[in-house]
Amino acid sequence: MNYMKFWLAFGMKTIMLLTIVASTFSNSATLAAPKSDTHNQTIRGNSGGPVDSKNCGFVANTPSYTLSLSNRIDYMRMFVEVNGGQPTLLVIGPKADDSFCVLGDMNTGLNPEISGVWEAGTYNVYIGDRYGERHQFTLRISTDKN
Q: From which residue to which does the signal peptide run (predicted)?
């Protein structure tokens, strides 16, 4: 697997459809965001897993969640909150060889986050842990810049 770290550019909001499907849990949700509305989505699950991703800690065998974006989103933020461990956020997509890893830092209280422009397509999202520990997580996804 090829891992890259990159920063996403900020831009204006756009009309989009965001679908979140849980692959290891029964939760699923759809988020539609018109141009001027603010929408937030909260997803809960367990971090970590048995697979050593090499550069982004230990993750589950399958994605924690799959995001399908029907249109480009000019601004979206993902923020992972975990009480314990050292969480990681690994996102693969929208192309199979596109991936990025976000490790928490002192500015985020060791909770990983990423924001910016997201192209249309499918993203596999893994909430991992640097040392393989398992903790309950909350993944917050928002199109609100505030």
A: 1-32
